[in-house]
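User: quick one, fold this
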Amino acid sequence: MRIAMIGGGYVGLVSGACFAEFGSEVVVVEVDPDRLAALRAGRMPIYEPGLDRLVEENVAAGRLSFTDALPTALDGAEAVFIAVGTPTRRGDGHADLSYVYAAAEQVARALTGYAVIVTKSTVPVGTGRRIAEIVAAARPELAFDVASNPEFLREGNAIGDFMRPDRVVIGAESERAREVLRRLYRPLNLIETPIVFTGIETAELTKYAANAFLAMKVTFINEIADLCEKTGADVHDVARGIGLDGRIGRKFLHPGPGFGGSCFPKDTLALMRIAQEYGAPSRLVEATVAVNDARKAAMSARVIAACGGSVRGKTVAVLGLTFKPETDDMRDAPAVPLVWRLVQDGAVVRAFDPEGMDQARPLLPEGVVYCRDALDAAAGADALVVVTEWNEFRALGPERLAGAMAGRVLVDLRNVYDPAAMREAGFAYQGIGRPGG
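Assistant:
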């Protein structure tokens, strides 16, 4: 089966490589010349564990290729996936669909026969209908179908999520379109993956609803963590106590400095605007957005308070810059407002992240010292802040940190360390939602 993937970004590249691994012939269309050159040379424009190997193997097998020539990519394609960006539109929080609609029109003009045009990008309700109108206006004689196939990929685990998904959601309204996509996903029949067929609008809304619900779980446990600090309870025990309830589940109940990344901030804001636009406002989603924004802003105040109320003239080590481990994504990362506030208040920030240093530089203020590893960042620091829970940070014992640092303030925004061990080593340790801070 031959398919085309419009967009060689995170979603398009991961999806295209995984479809190729399923056995399909996949052509990824990428118009950015630098990104295209990198892909053709085998250099990944993003960090995702295992992606470089997966791409290399499928290119070598002849199942995966990259081009900027849309007609070539669409020649013989039974399905054309639109996987371009849908960033938050400036000023109003709605998703910017200009790239999606431009791609739809270009696809319409380049197709030579029937194909299913599938939105893989996260798009608001009604986008599929609008794409159908655009294609029909550009090519009234063309036989086509439009479908929605939202992705549910976690950065850092995207390949596993694609190859072994909880479910596949497909919004399609003709049997011909459903059959094309059913054949495409047939390899998942071996592991009995549920394929959920819905209407187009339902599939579009399902993606937003899923991300908003998970974002609410994160925000909920963060608020419970604040309450635990006031009452002397332990948020990890609370999370385990409620997470073992099958109706709630254990995932996404890990307290921290607030959610970030490419999906949750953008999608919760977009769903909030969609709900308002349709006259069915979601107060829970609105509260989630507001609480999360406030939490990220408050993390710097937590660090400053731990340093005695001022960081002026002090050196603060920041471990972890990306919004989560196993990615180089800095979008809406909690580290960004934290570092800005520390620098503005007079601190010298020494930062390290295993994968996100290059992506962080344009987003952080001048004067930040970028270090070669975690111990280098900790060298001479008066205080240390853990922002992202990379596994290599967990391996840093209290003796090694104490030997590197000048001070003993440790603010653990991910609860990666044992509070008792850190305090025994002389650290003024503060975690999230734990007795004693």
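User: anything notable?
Assistant: DSSP finds 18 helices and 14 strands in the chain.
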